[in-house]
Amino acid sequence: MIFGRTPELPTPEQALKGRATPEFEVPARHTVLGNPLLGPYPEGLAVADFALGCFWGAERKFWQTEGVWTTYVGYQGGYTENPSYEEVCSGLTGHTEAVRVVFDPARVSYASLLKLFWESHNPTQGFRQGNDVGTQYRSAIYTHSPEQEAGAKASLEAYQQVLTAAGHGTITTTVLPAEGRPFWPAEPYHQQYLDKNPDGYCGIGGTGVRLDEPFETNWGASCPTGVAPAPAATER
């Protein structure tokens, strides 16, 4: 993206090394929902991680959803420990801009969150989302259980069918396990950014193509997701 070059993911050797501890403290509570950001979370809640472009607008989509207990934004899927926003934007961390969604499966299903994910962005654009260009804007789902993985892949296949019928291209979204891909929280000013700045930039926009739920899948419409543990110390 710099000097007109096509964005490329760095190799582990090329990536910035980062730091062992964060340079800031994450706010204790969500400015809209009032619940803790980093846990511990009540028993029975589940965690889902999504990357769909600029995380300011993406986070708002999820915190406005009934059954979502808390959300926060950060960096995931790359190599750099405790990265800064500037480092992620350099393209040298390999991370996406991601949203962590803590939700009550009794009130909102993982399938419903997947539907919101697909319909809130254009997943066919590779290393960009609209006018936002860079590897950090790529589309990704990081799963926390085999059930989430099966549901994410089934929804990808289902959405590809309706996108193709509507004349869109091939989905470039990656579905990867969250295990081994720590979620590094972003700086405090990024958390619930559009609540603090209602007229702030929001680059989130879908294709207008809708996805029916439940998807044709063998994992079941309810898609069990398990209990959410408190984040590990390395994720703070």
TrEMBL record:
EC number assigned by the record: 1.8.4.11
Transmembrane segments: none
UniProt entry keywords in alphabetical sequence: Oxidoreductase
Domain of life assignment: Bacteria
The keyword RNA-binding is annotated on this UniProt entry: no
InterPro entries the UniProt entry points to: Met_Sox_Rdtase_MsrA_dom, Met_Sox_Rdtase_MsrA_sf, MsrA_MetSO_reductase
Stretches assigned to the Peptide methionine sulphoxide reductase MsrA domain: 49-202
Active site: 54
GO MF annotations, alphabetized: peptide-methionine (S)-S-oxide reductase activity
Reactions catalysed: L-methionyl-[protein] + [thioredoxin]-disulfide + H2O = L-methionyl-(S)-S-oxide-[protein] + [thioredoxin]-dithiol; [thioredoxin]-disulfide + L-methionine + H2O = L-methionine (S)-S-oxide + [thioredoxin]-dithiol
Role played: Has an important function as a repair enzyme for proteins that have been inactivated by oxidation. Catalyzes the reversible oxidation-reduction of methionine sulfoxide in proteins to methionine.
Family the entry assigns: Belongs to the MsrA Met sulfoxide reductase family.
Record protein name field: Peptide methionine sulfoxide reductase MsrA
Lineage per the UniProt record: Bacteria, Bacillati, Actinomycetota, Actinomycetes, Kitasatosporales
Gene: msrA
